[in-house]
Each structure stands twice: as structure tokens, then as C-alpha cells.
Design goal:
- The chain has about 170 residues and is α/β, with parallel strands linked by helices.
- It has a single domain, classed as Nucleotidyltransferase, domain 5.
- Strands 3-2-1-4-5 form a five-stranded mixed β-sheet.
- The radius of gyration is 15 Å and the shape is globular.
Length: about 170
């Protein structure tokens, strides 16, 4: 199974494609971050995200997209901007006819680190270890996106063993 994980953010939107083979081994396929220019108009930033994610989906052909679930932010303006980014990521997936599943930050960290309140640096180190990377992914948004994909692959494998389908 090949999954595209997306970490939606206001400054960087991270993405990572991870594949799990028939033996259950995880493989890093592709990852990166879309850097958004704060002084650019919001609609242009959203277009840049859509264009980049559409390209990643087209080239790397994931079967599904996993994103971080909505969480509550102290700053309403930041939460609204994050919602715009998340909506564009979901639209890029929908345009490619891909299902989207969402996981809470707690679930993602638990699946990757084993502790739901793990620090970003711990997530980076574990993602590098799980994917056999030579160094932790940078910026942290890339590690978060890869962690989201890994979370789905772990969850789907567990549900498959239990006879349930993930993302349905």
C-alpha cells in the first residue's frame, strides 16, 4: 500500500509518500515541503499548495491520502488559515479520486513514537529510524507528513488483521 501523508501548515505544508510492502516493511518513496511566502496573497499560496500536491499525486500515485485531523487553536485567525490549507489538500486528493483519512495528533505520535505527547524532535528521529533514512527529515513538517502516512499504514495493518477496513 502507498500512502501520501500531508502535514498542513501556514508556513510549510509537508508531504511524504510511504509504501508498505507485502512483508510489512516501510519504504520512503518521496517527501518534501511547500514553503509558503507570507506576503503573498492567500489565494496564491493555496494555489501553490494545490499545484504541488497535484504534482506529487500524479507522479507518485498513492492509493490514499492521510492528513492530520482538525485540532483546536488558541488563535482563531491561524486556525482559519490552517483550515484553508487543509481544504485545499483534501480537494487535491478528491480531484485525483483518492480517499482522505484523518488522524489526531495524539494518534499519529502514538503510532510512530509510542507516546502521544512526544516532541517534534522525537517524531523526526523515529520517522528516520522507521524509514531507514540517513538523517531526520527537515523541516519538521516533512517528518510530520511522513509520520501521518506511517500512522495510516500501521492502523490499516492492524485493522486488516482484525478484519476491518481502514478509511471507510
Amino acid at each position: 500500500m502507498r500512502v501520501l501523508g500531508i502535514d498542513c501548515g501556514g508556513e510549510y505544508t509537508g508531504y511524504g509518500v510511504v509504501e508498505q510492502d507485502d512483508l510489512g516493511c516501510l519504504h520512503h518513496v518521496y517527501s518534501g515541503a511547500i514553503r509558503l511566502v507570507a506576503r503573498e496573497a492567500l489565494e496564491l499560496r493555496l494555489k501553490a499548495i494545490n499545484d504541488a500536491l497535484t504534482q506529487v499525486i500524479s507522479v507518485h500515485d498513492p492509493e490514499l491520502v492521510a492528513i492530520e485531523d482538525v485540532f483546536y487553536a488558541v488563535n482563531a485567525k491561524s486556525a482559519l488559515k490552517l483550515g484553508h490549507v487543509r481544504g485545499v489538500a483534501m480537494l487535491a486528493a478528491a480531484q485525483a479520486r483518492l480517499s482522505v483519512v484523518a488522524y489526531s495528533p495524539l494518534s499519529i505520535k502514538s503510532a510512530v513514537v509510542g507516546y502521544g505527547r512526544a516532541e517534534k524532535s522525537q517524531v523526526q528521529v523515529m520517522v528516520a529510524r522507521l524509514l531507514n533514512l540517513s538523517a531526520p527529515p527537515e523541516p519538521p513538517d516533512v517528518a510530520d507528513a511522513l509520520a501521518i502516512a506511517i500512522c495510516h499504514l500501521h492502523t490499516a495493518a492492524t485493522l486488516q488483521r482484525q478484519g476491518v477496513t481502514a478509511g471507510k
